[in-house]
C-alpha cells in the first residue's frame, strides 16, 4: 500500500526538523521545505529506509516560489495527507515605538502570509479528496501578549485565528485542523530573533528546563495517530517552569 504524504515547512531546524523525522518514522513519505538546501540534505540522512523524500528549497515569503513548487508537484507527490505549517520566526524584540519595519515585514510575511500561501497551494487537493490534516504551529505568543512582543504576538494571533477559521471552513470536507501553541522551546529561534547574538539567545534558556523540539513532535505524533473521528483542535504546551508568556520560574545564578 502507498505511504501517506506529509509536507513540513521549515524542516531545516528545530521543531520542523523534529516533526519531519517523527512523521517519516510513522511511515509518511516526506516533503520538507526551507531555504537552507544543505540542511535538507542532512535531514535525508536521518530518515528511515523505505520513505520517499522530496526536499524543496524556497522562501515562503515568495508567493511565486510557493506556487511554482507546491501547485505543480509531480503527480506521485501531489496528494498531501498531512500539512505541518511550521516555518516561522521572531525577528527582534523591541517596543513598538522603536521597532524595525524590516523585522515587522519579515514576521508578517513569513509567519502569516507564508502560511497562507502554502495552505492555498495544498488545501484544494484536500477538499477534492475530502480528507487531510493540517497542523499549524502557533505559539503562546498567539494566546497572550508580552512586552516588546507586539508584532510577533500579532503574527501568532493571526495564526491562531487562521487555524480556527480553517477548521470552520474545512469542516464540510472532513479535514482535521489543529493548532499547537508552544511556550519556550530551545531551538535556533532566539538566535534568529537576536540576529545571531548567541550569547543573548542562550540566556533565554538558562535557569530552567525549556521544551525541546521533540516535545512538539511527540504531540504531532499523538495527533496524527488519533482515529478518524477525533481531532486535537488546540494544544498549548509549556515547560513546567513556565506558567504564562511572562511568568517563568528560573533558578538564580549562585
Ligand atoms: P528555528 O529557527 O529553529 O526554525 C525555523 C524554521 O523556519 C527553519 O527551518 C527555517 O528554515 C524556517 N523558515 C524561517 N523563515 C523562512 C522563510 N522565509 N522561508 C522558508 N522557511 C523559513 O525555530 P523553531 O523551530 O523554534 O520555530 C518553528 C516554529 O515554531 C515557528 O513558527 C516559531 O514561531 C514557532 N514557535 C517556536 C517557539 C520556540 O520557543 N522556539 C515557541 C512557539 C512557537 P530556513 O532558515 O532554512 O529557511
Ligand atoms: C516563541 C515563544 O515566548 O518567545 O513563540 O514568544 S516566545
Can you describe what's shown?
- This protein is α/β, with parallel strands linked by helices.
- The chain has one domain (5-237): NAD(P)-binding Rossmann-like Domain (Rossmann fold), CATH 3.40.50.
- The protein has helices spanning 14-25, 37-46, 63-70, 101-129, 150-169, 189-193, 198-203, 213-224; strands at residues 5-8, 29-34, 53-57, 82-85, 133-137, 176-182, 185-186, 211-212, 234-237.
- The strands form two sheets. The protein has a seven-stranded parallel sheet, sandwiched between helices.
- Strand 4 (82-85), helix 4 and strand 5 form a beta-alpha-beta unit.
- Helix 1 packs parallel to helix 8 (213-224).
- The protein is globular, with a radius of gyration of 18 Å.
- 2-hydroxyethylsulfonic acid binds next to loops.
Amino acid at each position: 500500500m502507498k505511504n501517506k504524504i506529509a509536507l513540513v515547512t521549515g524542516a531545516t531546524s528545530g521543531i520542523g526538523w523534529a516533526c519531519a523525522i517523527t512523521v517519516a518514522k510513522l511511515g509518511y513519505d516526506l516533503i520538507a521545505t526551507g531555504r537552507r538546501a544543505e540542511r535538507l540534505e542532512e535531514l535525508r540522512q536521518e530518515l528511515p529506509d523505505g520513505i520517499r523524500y522530496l526536499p524543496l528549497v524556497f522562501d515562503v515569503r515568495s508567493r511565486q516560489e510557493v506556487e511554482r513548487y507546491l501547485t505543480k508537484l509531480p503527480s506521485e507527490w501531489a496528494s498531501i495527507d498531512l500539512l505541518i505549517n511550521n516555518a516561522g520566526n521572531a525577528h527582534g524584540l523591541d517596543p513598538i515605538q522603536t521597532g524595525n519595519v524590516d523585522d515587522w515585514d519579515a514576521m508578517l510575511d513569513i509567519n502569516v502570509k507564508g502560511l497562507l500561501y502554502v495552505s492555498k497551494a495544498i488545501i484544494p487537493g484536500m477538499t477534492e479528496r475530502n480528507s487531510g490534516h493540517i497542523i499549524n504551529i502557533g505559539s503562546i505568543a498567539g494566546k497572550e501578549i508580552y512586552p516588546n512582543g507586539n508584532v510577533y504576538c500579532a503574527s501568532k494571533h493571526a495564526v491562531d485565528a487562521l487555524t480556527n477559521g480553517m477548521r470552520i471552513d474545512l469542516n464540510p470536507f472532513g479535514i482535521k485542523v489543529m493548532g499547537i501553541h508552544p511556550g519556550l522551546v530551545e531551538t535556533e529561534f532566539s538566535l534568529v530573533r537576536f540576529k545571531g547574538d548567541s550569547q543573548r539567545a542562550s540566556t533565554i534558556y538558562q535557569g530552567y528546563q525549556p521544551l525541546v523540539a521533540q516535545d512538539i513532535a511527540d504531540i504531532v505524533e499523538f495527533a496524527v495517530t488519533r482515529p478518524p473521528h477525533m481531532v486535537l483542535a488546540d494544544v498549548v504546551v509549556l515547560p513546567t517552569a513556565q506558567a504564562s508568556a511572562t511568568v517563568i520560574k528560573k533558578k538564580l545564578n549562585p
